[in-house]
Write a structure and sequence with these properties.
The complex is a heterodimer of chains A (about 280) and B (about 300).
Chain A: H1 3-26, H2 37-43, H3 45-48, H4 57-69, H5 82-113, H6 115-128, H7 137-144, H8 147-172, H9 176-184, H10 189-227, H11 232-241, H12 245-273
Helix pairs in contact in A: 4-12, 5-6, 5-8, 5-10, 5-11, 7-8, 8-10, 10-11, 10-12, 11-12
Chain B: E1 6-16, E2 21-32, E3 37-41, H1 48-56, E4 63-68, E5 71-72, E6 80-83, H2 95-106, H3 112-125, H4 141-154, E7 159-163, H5 171-188, E8 191-196, H6 199-205, E9 208-212, E10 220-225, H7 243-260, E11 276-277, H8 293-296
Parallel strand pairs in B: 3-8, 3-9, 6-7, 7-8, 10-11
Antiparallel strand pairs in B: 1-2, 1-4, 4-5, 9-10
Helix pairs in contact in B: 2-3, 2-4, 3-4
The chains are: A mainly alpha (about 280), B alpha/beta (about 300).
């Protein structure tokens, strides 16, 4: 058996064991003995059957099928399909992320190409970078006066730093001899940036973009819990208020899957941008 | 005095050091004629790469000027193509892409097919026809350097500058590439300026070998006129009666005089006109540069 097949088998085994343990842990222990029937009625299944309020994998499976049957329904503000909620979140992430690309890559070029600008901006970047993006939320809400746009701003501010820092680093560390090739060919600064510096720094830039998309997807859930209305983050919080643990678990699963897909997308872009030397 | 196609006029280059400035070289004079192949030899740190970079326009002298074809140079130019020591190919471009990049920089108005055809011609010239679609990472070290040479030649420069272009290659590959470069330069009358520390390479390729003393404060001790016939062959070069006198002279310089020259500069030595030496001539030129061939014997 090849390594790939063996690891797949092992993965499947781990999954099955996990699901089985989960199922057993949440299963009822059967009727509790010696309880006053009146008292038992008051207590409900958790006490009488030993059944946990935590749903088991079979409950989740059933609920998941329900969601997948109509993922995009919209029955008013508090009852939307999970697919629709994810699309809301993705739209916000895309908005904030694209804004960050538009700002971070040209600015990163500038920082990478000019040691002066680099040194001048460094203290600002060092201070702004470690700020939790959610700390900006009140300021964003106050100035932008729109919760949806504020969420986009929060995504922007959290995705801008890795891209900015990686672009600057990638641009600054382009091999001197490649720059010299362009110089001896009298290639102008703009064409040099496009034909030499950009492709040379592309792998580093895309790595920064990959880190950013990961952070953006982490932050959107928290941001939407705060701003409310729509999105997968809001969905999680709303279902918690509904005490629907099944829906919370399904949302967690979906967040993980979508996050993985976003990461894979950027990983593929990264492979396209790298060049063997 | 014959035509000065390239003329270094009293150039100096200094770097800031711990205690003031370190002078790599100063008051350096050198001229090269059109169609000439000049090699500079000297030990590491004597500033020969700096001289080449100044000629390329990648570095600027602190004093003095370099005049090429009647014009003082100000920065890099398509008239002076550089073959870099580490080939410096753009790894994300193919062989054709790398050469075409240079061609399109030289003739921006050319059509795509015109550029590709011109690039192909020079790829074939260095013997790489058929490898156009390959990426540099798929080529051997020698093939990469061939692409570097094709790229430099493709812009049809007035001067070809080479910074130890073959130093990273194995002996066999180096030999064939030396043959190619000599053939191309002789056929096209290409003016070439090359840095090397391989004495045999200098003797095979150069018309004039410039000897630089050790740095800091390096100077051109003398210029050796290569007495070997123009139609020389690399493989039986060492059988030529002039080969060993020249070789011994160069090696003696590198071993001994490159170090001691500064402290006993011969009387009447003029930096502006370093002595032109023919090691095979019975008499030493008027400046009286000391020949150490005898000491070796």
């Amino acid at each position: 058996m090849s390594e790939g097949v063996r690891s797949a088998v092992l993965s499947a085994l781990i999954l099955v064991l996990f699901l089985a343990a989960w199922q057993i842990a949440t299963q009822g222990t059967g009727a509790t003995q010696q309880m006053d029937p009146e008292y038992a009625k008051l207590m409900g299944v958790t006490a009488t059957q030993g059944k946990s309020a935590m749903p088991g994998p079979l409950d989740i499976g059933a609920k998941l099928m329900e969601h997948l049957r109509s993922p995009f329904y919209d029955k008013g503000p508090n009852d939307k399909g999970i697919g629709l909620q994810i699309l809301y979140s993705l739209a916000r992430v895309a908005g904030g992320y694209l804004l960050a690309v538009i700002v971070a890559i040209p600015l990163g070029f500038l920082i990478g190409m000019s040691p002066l600008v680099s040194r001048a901006l460094d203290p600002f970047i060092q201070v702004l970078k470690p700020i939790s993006p959610l700390a900006w939320m009140p300021l964003a809400l106050y100035t932008i006066k729109d919760s949806g746009k504020s969420a986009i701003f929060v995504i922007f501010i959290c995705s801008v730093w890795p891209m900015l820092i990686n672009t600057a680093f990638g641009v600054a560390s382009v091999r001197k001899e490649w720059i010299n090739v362009a110089r001896t060919l009298e290639v102008g600064p703009f064409r040099r940036a496009i034909t030499v510096i950009l492709p040379a720094a592309a792998p580093t830039i895309v790595t920064g973009m990959r880190i950013s998309i990961g952070i953006a997807w982490l932050v959107i859930v928290a941001a939407e819990m705060l701003v409310g209305g729509t999105g997968i983050g809001y969905f999680v919080w709303n279902e918690w208020n509904n005490l629907s643990i099944s829906n919370v678990i399904i949302a967690i699963l979906m967040i993980g899957l979508v996050g993985m897909m976003l990461d894979q997308l950027l990983a593929r872009a990264g492979r396209a941008a790298t060049y063997p030397e | 005095m014959s035509e000065r196609f390239i003329s270094f006029e009293s150039i100096a280059r200094r770097y800031p050091a711990k205690d003031g400035m370190t002078t790599v070289f100063e008051d350096l004079w050198l001229s090269v004629e059109r169609g000439e192949f000049v090699c500079i030899i000297g030990h590491s740190g004597c500033g020969k790469t700096t001289v080449l970079n100044i000629l390329a326009g990648l570095d600027a002298p602190d004093d003095g000027v370099v005049i090429v074809d009647g014009q003082a140079i100000e920065g890099p130019s398509l008239d002076r193509a550089v073959v870099f020591q580490g080939h410096a190919l753009l790894p994300w471009r193919t062989v054709l892409g790398n050469v075409a990049y240079a061609v399109s920089s030289r003739w921006p108005k050319w059509s795509r097919t015109q550029i590709a055809d011109h690039a192909r011609k020079f790829i074939a010239l260095v013997g790489l026809a058929g490898a156009e679609a390959k990426k540099p990472s798929e080529l051997s070290g020698g093939m990469k350097q061939r692409v570097g040479i094709a790229r430099a030649l493709s812009i049809e420069p007035k001067i070809l500058l080479m910074d130890e272009p073959f130093s990273a290659l194995d002996a066999l590959t180096r030999g064939t590439l030396q043959d190619e470069v000599r053939r191309i330069c002789v056929e096209t009358g290409q003016t070439a300026f090359m840095i090397t520390h391989d004495v045999d390479e200098a003797i095979f390729l150069a018309d004039k070998i410039v000897l630089m003393t050790n740095g800091p404060g390096a100077m051109i001790a003398e210029i050796v006129k290569n007495p070997l016939p123009r139609d020389r062959k690399r493989l039986d070069l060492h059988k030529h009666p002039f080969f060993y006198p020249v070789r011994n002279h160069l090696i003696d310089f590198l071993v001994e005089r490159s170090r001691t020259f500064r402290d006993n500069v011969p009387a009447g030595f003029d930096r502006r006109h370093p002595p032109i030496v023919d090691p095979t001539a019975p008499e030493i030129p008027e400046t009286g540069a000391v020949r150490l061939v005898k000491i070796n014997a």
